[in-house]
Design goal:
The protein is α/β, with parallel strands linked by helices and 147 residues long. Helices cover 23% and strands 40% of the residues. It has one domain: 3-Layer(bba) Sandwich (D-tyrosyl-trna(Tyr) Deacylase, Chain: A). Strands 1, 2, 3, 6, 7 and 8 form a six-stranded mixed sheet that branches. It has a two-stranded antiparallel ribbon with strand order 4-5. Helix 1 crosses helix 3. The radius of gyration is 15 Å and the shape is globular.
Length: 147
């Protein structure tokens, strides 16, 4: 699994001009599922993310986790994180999981965040064309990969 983690002051998702999710301070998590990914990887990635210390202390150093700050999480499925651009000009997505595998693993990941203590976990709409808005705080953007 791959995640692009962005610390945000707010983020939202619209589908067909309707707001379907919105959070305040926390993480926007763009999540990609690979063809060989598993529920164990979803759990491990969720554990890593909730405990990462990316929120500042009084000196501005990364010292606090999402759990410590009580932040929210907005999880947005993003198969394009598995784009292979080594050849030609059109990306290949053959390493991305098929929807029947990816969608349940995205849900498993989000439920793991909740189980680990994130009280506000919201989701984009799997497979939809989404307009994602965010106010990146910092900016802080971290790439995570379970491989």
């Amino acid at each position: 699994m791959r995640a692009l983690l962005q610390r945000v002051s707010q983020a939202s998702v619209h589908v067909d001009q309707q707001k379907i999710a919105q959070i305040g301070a926390g993480y926007l998590i763009l999540i990609g599922v690979g063809a060989s990914d598993s529920a164990d990887q979803a759990q491990q990635l969720a554990e890593k993310i909730v405990h990462m210390r990316l929120f500042p202390d009084e000196l501005g150093r990364f010292h606090h986790s999402l759990l410590e700050t009580g932040g929210a999480a907005l999880v947005v499925s993003q198969f394009t994180l598995f784009a292979d651009t080594r050849k030609g000009r059109r990306p290949s997505f053959t390493d991305a999981a098929r929807p029947e595998l990816a969608e349940p693993l995205v849900q498993t990941f989000g439920k793991a965040l909740q189980t680990l203590g994130v009280s506000d976990v919201q989701f984009g709409q799997f497979g939809a064309h989404m307009d994602v808005s965010l106010h990146n705080d910092g900016p802080v953007t971290i790439w995570l990969d379970t491989d």
